[in-house]
Amino acid sequence: MTITGFTHSTSVDVPVQRFEVFTGAGRRRDWSDEEKDQIIAESYSGEMSVSAVARRHGLSPGQLFTWRRQVRKQAEQALPPMFVPAVIDSSAERRPKPRKAMTKNASPATAIELEIGDAIVRITSGADTATIAAVIQALKASS
Question: Which residue ranges form the domains of the chain, and what is each CATH number?
Answer without folding.
Answer: 2-78 (1.10.10), 110-143 (no CATH)
